[in-house]
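Need a sequence for this fold. Nothing fancy.
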C-alpha cells in the first residue's frame, strides 16, 4: 500500500466511524440526562457503566440495559441471553461482581416470550447470576426487553480516571463469530460456563492489584465509540493505533472497530503496568494489546502508518454531556 492509498483509506475509515449509528445513538444519553437534571457531577457520577454507590467498605453497583425492538424480534433467544451478559459485563467493567438481575418483559403471548426467557435463563445459569424478579406483560402487540443488575465492588474501575500519560489497552475474546444480524460478535453463548466466569474475574483482580484505574466495556459503537465515552468522561485525549487492535482473522477493520464483542474492554493503564495487565488476560487466552496513547486534550483519533484522523472532538461536540476535565 503506498502513501496516498494509506491516507485515503484512513480518511474513508474515519468518515465511516464518524457516521456510525452505534456512536450516534450514544448521544441520546446526554439528552435524557439533561432532562432529568443528572448530567453534572454529583454524589453518584453519571456516564459510567454502572452507578457506583458507596456502601461500607465497597460500592454497590446498579445498571440497566434496554434492547432495540428490532434486535429482540430478530434474535429473541440471544436478546434474552444478552439481557444478562451485557449487564454482567458492565459490572465487571467497574471492577465488580454481579449479584442478581431483574427483568421487564413485554410480549405478544407466552409463545413469543418463551425464547426470550429461555435465553435469559440460560445466561443466568451460565454466569451464575440469578434472575430474582421483574415485570411481565404478555398482552403487548410486540416484544420489548429491559434487564437491570445489582453488583458489588471492593475497588472501582471507572470511566472518569483515565489520565494523560496512560496507555490504552484493549482486551477482547476473539474465540467467537458474528451473529446473523446486527454487529454482535458472540464469544460467549457456546463457551464453557466455568471459563466465562473465570474470565470476568480478571477485571476485579486488576482493580484490586491497582493495575488500572479506568475501564469501560466495549458496547454499541464498538471500540471507537467506547473510547470516545471514556475520553469524554475522563477529560482526556485518546489516539488509537488501529493496526494494534486485537482482531479476528478475516474480519475487515472497519467492521471490527464498530462491532459489539461479547467480551471486550478498554482499560487506561499506567505505562509501568501495561505488561502485567496484558499478562492477566493472556493467561486466560484472551487477546489483549496496547493500542494507543492517553494524553491531554479533547479528541479521539485513529492512527495508521504515521497518519492521524480525528473521529470526534468532545469539547466541540460532546457525546454524553457528562464529562470532566482534569488539571
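Here you go.
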Amino acid at each position: 500500500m503506498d502513501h496516498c492509498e494509506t491516507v485515503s483509506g484512513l480518511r474513508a475509515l474515519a468518515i465511516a466511524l464518524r457516521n456510525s449509528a452505534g456512536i450516534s445513538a450514544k448521544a441520546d444519553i446526554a439528552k435524557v440526562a439533561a432532562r432529568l437534571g443528572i448530567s453534572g457531577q454529583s454524589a453518584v457520577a453519571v456516564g459510567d457503566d454502572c452507578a457506583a454507590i458507596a456502601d461500607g467498605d465497597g460500592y454497590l453497583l446498579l445498571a440497566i440495559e434496554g434492547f432495540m425492538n428490532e434486535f429482540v424480534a430478530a434474535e429473541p433467544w440471544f436478546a434474552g441471553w444478552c439481557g444478562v451478559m451485557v449487564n454482567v459485563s458492565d459490572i465487571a467493567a467497574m471492577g465488580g461482581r454481579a449479584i442478581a438481575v431483574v427483568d421487564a418483559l413485554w410480549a405478544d403471548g407466552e409463545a413469543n416470550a418463551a425464547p426470550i426467557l429461555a435465553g435469559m435463563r440460560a445466561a443466568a445459569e451460565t454466569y451464575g447470576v440469578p434472575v430474582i424478579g421483574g415485570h411481565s406483560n404478555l398482552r403487548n402487540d410486540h416484544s420489548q426487553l429491559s434487564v437491570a443488575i445489582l453488583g458489588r465492588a471492593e475497588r472501582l474501575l471507572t470511566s472518569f480516571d483515565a489520565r494523560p500519560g496512560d496507555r490504552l489497552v484493549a482486551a477482547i475474546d476473539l474465540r467467537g463469530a458474528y451473529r446473523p444480524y446486527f454487529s454482535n460478535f458472540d464469544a460467549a453463548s457456546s463457551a464453557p460456563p466455568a471459563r466465562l466466569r473465570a474470565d470476568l474475574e480478571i477485571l476485579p483482580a486488576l482493580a484490586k492489584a491497582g493495575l488500572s484505574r479506568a475501564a469501560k466495556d466495549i458496547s454499541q459503537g464498538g471500540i471507537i465509540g467506547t473510547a470516545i465515552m471514556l475520553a469524554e468522561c475522563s477529560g482526556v485525549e485518546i489516539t488509537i493505533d488501529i493496526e494494534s487492535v486485537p482482531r479476528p482473522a478475516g474480519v475487515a477493520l472497519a467492521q471490527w472497530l464498530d462491532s459489539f464483542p461479547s467480551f471486550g474492554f478498554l482499560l487506561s493503564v499506567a505505562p509501568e503496568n501495561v505488561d502485567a495487565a496484558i499478562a492477566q488476560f493472556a493467561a486466560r487466552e484472551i487477546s489483549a494489546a496496547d493500542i494507543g496513547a492517553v494524553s491531554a486534550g479533547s479528541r479521539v483519533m485513529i492512527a495508521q502508518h504515521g497518519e492521524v484522523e480525528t473521529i470526534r472532538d468532545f469539547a466541540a461536540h460532546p457525546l454524553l454531556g457528562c464529562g470532566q476535565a482534569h488539571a
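For context: The CA atoms of residues 106 and 137 lie 5 Å apart.
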